[in-house]
Specification:
The protein is α/β, with parallel strands linked by helices. It is 36% helix and 25% strand. The protein has nine helices and 14 strands. The strands form two sheets. The chain has an eight-stranded mixed sheet. A six-stranded parallel sheet has the order 3-2-1-4-5-6, sandwiched between helices. Helix 4 runs parallel beside helix 5, helix 5 runs antiparallel to helix 9 and helix 7 crosses helix 9.
């Protein structure tokens, strides 16, 4: 059965990564793309051979089974709800929503209607993280003591949505959620927030720098850092009693990059090159053919939003969005 996709929004990630992967994926068809700006939708549609349309018209199309939604975080709830009510499976950019209450409501709606709702964290589909987790479980590092992870990017141009508090911008939602979800991937959803700090500047109404300490099962401590503005950093280290393992290009590796995971005693583990974008989309398409199999991923998505709420509470930071 062919899964017919529509894309709700012409974000850069949709054009650079997701649309090309959809075109290359067997059993998947890209049918339509929507934008609030007709010219953007037309240009996108011409590039990828699909139909240009509006948001509402796309959701009303009977030839669209699933929707990819790369809109700003504060718009996720509104348009995810609309897509689910229209009977569409939804792949929404991470996080599913910026806060837990709306995430729970959307998950409940998806379950009630027998639809797949998944947030588009791609990195857990890369085999390098499975290699790390397998090494941890096999005792290769000895007893695991800590995780240190960091994701940061240089400053963005003025007007970037990441600087817009009304759209739930900021470093935590855009970047900090990656090492947060990594901690969930490695240690499970039982992690809790021990303390957190979020910092801004007088010129910005969003958080630009953050540090979070998490308590994980088996007395493991995870420390995550993230920043919007500064050097590009994208790595993590898992430390054990006997050895540690370091992962570079952790969250956004190119499809043709072969990771070498470095151990502190000079040894290394090689994970195969892997296209995490295609893998994530293929896994979503598989779930759409059996929606009731997706419960664990929905639970992890809710837990991520609960942890985001806990981080803001620990840092004394209020979330301001349009909803």
């Amino acid at each position: 059965m062919t899964l017919r996709f529509g894309i709700l929004g012409c974000a850069d990630i949709a054009r650079r990564r997701v649309a090309p992967a959809l075109l290359a994926l067997p059993g998947v068809e890209l049918v339509a793309v929507a934008s609030r700006t007709p010219g953007r939708a037309s240009a996108f549609a011409d590039e990828f051979g699909c139909a240009p349309t509006t948001y509402t018209a796309l959701l009303n199309r009977p030839d669209v089974d699933a929707v990819y939604l790369p809109l700003p975080p504060a718009l996720h709830a509104e348009w995810t709800e609309a897509a689910l009510l229209a009977g569409k499976h939804v792949l929404v950019e991470k996080p599913i929503t910026p806060s837990a209450d709306t995430a729970r409501a959307l998950v409940w709606l998806a379950e009630e209607r027998g639809l797949v709702l998944r947030e588009n964290f791609m990195f857990p589909h890369h085999r390098q993280h499975h290699t790390v987790r397998d090494a941890m479980r096999a005792g290769l590092l000895g007893r695991v003591r800590s995780l240190s992870a960091e994701f940061g990017i240089p400053a963005r141009p003025d007007g970037d949505i990441r600087y817009d508090a009304a759209l739930a911008g900021g470093a935590l939602v855009d970047l900090g959620c990656y090492p947060l979800r990594l901690a969930q991937f490695l240690f499970g959803d039982g992690i809790t927030v021990r303390d957190a700090e979020l910092y801004s500047t007088p010129a910005h109404g969003v958080d630009l720098i953050g540090r979070v300490t998490l308590s994980c099962p088996d007395s493991v401590t995870a420390t995550i850092h993230f920043h919007l503005g500064g050097d590009y950093v994208n790595e993590y280290t898992v430390r054990g009693e006997s050895r540690s393992i370091r992962v570079e290009r952790a969250f956004t590796p190119p499809a043709d990059w072969t990771p070498r995971l470095t151990l502190t005693d000079g040894a290394g583990l090689v994970a195969p090159a892997h296209d995490q974008v295609t893998a994530a989309l293929a896994d979503f398409a598989t779930a759409c053919r059996d929606p009731h199999s997706d419960h664990s991923k929905r639970a992890a998505a809710i837990r991520t939003t609960e942890l985001l709420d806990d981080i803001r509470a620990a840092a004394g930071w209020a979330l301001t969005t349009v909803r």
